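haha ok so turns out i had the wrong file open the whole time. this is the CORRECT one, sorry everyone. sequence first:
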Amino acid sequence: MKVKDIAIRYGISTLGLILVALGVGISIKSNLGIAPPSCPPTILNLQWTAISVGTFTWMMHLVFILLQMLILRKDFKLRYLMQIPAAFVFGYMCDASIWLFDAIASPATTYWVQVLLSLAAVVLTAIGIKLEVVGEGWILAGDFTTAVLSKVTKQPFSTVKVVFDVALVALTALFAWIAFGLLTGNGSTVVIREGTLILAFLTGICMRFTDPVIDKLVGGWVPKHNE
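then structure:
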C-alpha cells in the first residue's frame, strides 16, 4: 500500500479516535454516568488523582493486550502490537478532551442538560467508532479483546460485548464501593448511572443511522487493501 493511502487510513482512524475521546470528555462532564470502557480508568483517577484518566486508560489497554497474548499464545500476530501506540494515542486524546471540557464549563447539574450531553456523547462515539472501522488504521485493545473472546467462546460479538461491558461496570462499582462506600462514584463525580446505560445501549442504535452517512461521505475514497 502506498504511503499516501496509509496516511489517509490512519488520518480517518485518528479522527475516529478524537471523536470517541470527545465523547468520553462530554460524558464525564454530563455527570450522569460514562461509557463502560471508560468506567475503570475514571474511578481509578478519582482515587489516585495524580494519575490522569488517559494514563489509566492506556494502562488498562496494556492489560487487555496481555490478556490477548495469554489467550491467543502463538496465534498472537506481530501486527496486533499496533494496539500499543493506539492505546497511548487514545489515552492522551481522552486527557485532552477532559481538559478541554473542564476549561469550558463545570459539570452539568440540570438533569435535561445531563441527558443532552449523554446523547451528544452517543453520537460522537457512534461516528468515531465507524471512522475507526472505515479507516482500518488503529486497533483499540478493548474492541479487539472482545473480538478475541468472541472467537474463543464461539459466541456472537454483540453478546460478548455486552458481557464484557457489564464486567467492566461491575468491577468499577466494586472498586467504588470499597474506595468511597458508593456504587456510582466518589460522591461528587458520577461514573455509573443512567448515562452509562444510555451510552451502552444507544450507541449501537445510533450507528444504524450514522453508519450509512459515513459510508457515503468517506467510504468511497478510502484506499482498498488490494489497490
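Helices lie at 3-30, 39-47, 53-72, 83-104, 111-135, 141-153, 157-180, 194-217.
again sry for the mixup
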